[in-house]
Write a structure and sequence with these properties.
By secondary structure, this protein is mainly β. The protein has one helix and nine strands, in the order E-E-E-E-E-E-E-E-E-H. The protein has an eight-stranded antiparallel beta barrel.
């Protein structure tokens, strides 16, 4: 079964990157407001470049001077199943089995847009209208990451 990961990324602005293992890479969308378990929320999802599968386990600090500089932590992860659609069709329904994100979600491309999609939680037994997104990356965790992860080679 393919996996998904959601990175909490504190770069220029806090955002969450939803990544789905697909065709040997991680297909990725940046979600400025983060994913939601509330079916009433339609979250803007900007499709970004594919990432290698190894990036799915990355946690650390991207050094200043590099694209996306700032701390990154895994906010959620798990397996997923594609239920219908495809990226090429502009509509993809997946069932996520994560710690926080569970159940059916739809990624749907916005009409007339190249990279803009919407991430929407479907109404199912896991939907929660009282959902509040809670970032995990506290200052203490950021300090721990700085010690644990050596900086990338800037050359």
């Amino acid at each position: 079964m393919p996996f998904f990961v959601v990175h909490e990324h504190h770069s220029t602005r806090l955002h969450f990157d939803v990544r789905l293992e697909m065709d040997g890479v991680l297909k990725s969308w940046a979600i400025p407001k983060g994913p939601s378990m509330n079916p009433h929320d339609k979250r803007l999802a900007i499709m970004v470049e594919d990432h290698p599968l190894e990036y799915g386990s990355f946690e650390g600090i991207i050094p200043e001077g590099h694209y996306g500089a700032g701390p990154v932590i895994i906010w959620d992860h798990g397996d997923y199943a594609r239920r219908s659609g495809s990226i090429q069709e502009g509509k993809l329904e997946v069932e996520l089995s994560g710690r926080t994100l569970k159940g059916l979600f739809v990624l749907t491309k916005m009409a007339g847009k190249e990279k803009e999609w919407l991430l929407i939680k479907k109404k199912d037994q896991f939907a929660r209208v009282d959902f509040v997104l809670k970032p995990l990356l506290t200052p203490a965790v950021q300090r721990k990451l700085a010690v644990r992860v050596p900086p990338c080679d800037a050359s």
